[in-house]
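user: Please supply your own:

assistant:
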Amino acid sequence: MIYNWQQPDWPDFKYDITEIEDIMFSFAEEMGRVSGILNALSKDSQSDTLVNMMVSEAIKTSEIEGEYLNRQDVVSSIRNNLGLNRKPANVRDKRVHGIGSLMVDVRQTYQEPLSKEKLFSWHKMLMEGSRGLQIGKWRSHKEPMQVISGAAGKEKIHFEAPSSKQVPSEMDRFIAWFNETAPGGKKQIKKALVRSAIAHLYFESIHPFEDGNGRIGRAIAEKALSQTLKRPVLLSLSKTIEVNKRQYYAALEKGQRSNHISPWIKYFIETILLAQRQARQLIDFTLKKTKFFDHFKDMLNERQLKVMKRMFDAGPEGFEGGMSAAKYIAIAKTTKATATRDLQHLSGIKAFIIEGGGRSTHYLLNLKDDH
């Protein structure tokens, strides 16, 4: 198998954007809708939306790589890094602390040129607490860097990256390309989605670190998108990719076999468009949350308020299985009798919608405008 980096035209990527012009137009429309909904939110709600988006990205970019993080810890880490907690929350999981730092730094420094030092800094954040790895350095092992699947003895090699000794020069060229294609650069790529797609494929094809290449590659895609759009993007690319990881890996594998990458660009910008649509749904959910609490805040006691907030923390996907009496008792730390009264009250004021019956009775948040 001959990979893209082994071909004489590497890294002279070629592509045709005629098939994706409609997708790029749809993305611009979605961005306009997102801006409109955001403007209808208070500053506190805008801040909540930003945190929720970064939490989603942090969790899903880790899940793609097989790491499963506690959502509440990730919320605390990101809020700590944004300075939103009056008293910084204690986050013991170093992975959570690292990914939270990375999410915030990517957003706050998007305008800065890319550099080796920045990539090393991101890698140190991401690999915080890891052992047995070269952290904050390019890989240097002699063994081939391969993407493999399958059981021992039946492995399938999907991709092999340049050797470790080639990484420093390849990354120097990548960093130069990234900065030269940025706004105002001598090789500027004006189409934000196209630049983001190429940046991700280019970086993943070099695979410069021992571990963390996927997560940093998705951060680079976000940085490229934000730079060209001249504002931080509000979407979770990883959340969209994680839903269909097989499609992502298949598209990436195909894109790494040639430097004619039109199919890869089409796949990637369709993914970004879907991520932007999902972001709009999350922002719309935040708006509904604001309206919900504006309407019910004077009807809820502290116990009920705690439960409501926990349910909203689950995001647009909803609180798994809805709220039950048992869950209410656990969250509110109260008795069965009190939980029953609270649930009846919340149903009576139409904060909850009742579904099922008997032991299968559960309660959903009522997010309709006509409470």
User: Anything to note?
Assistant: The chain has two domains: 4-284, 300-365. The longest helix spans residues 262-296. Strands lie at 146-149, 156-160, 352-355, 362-365.
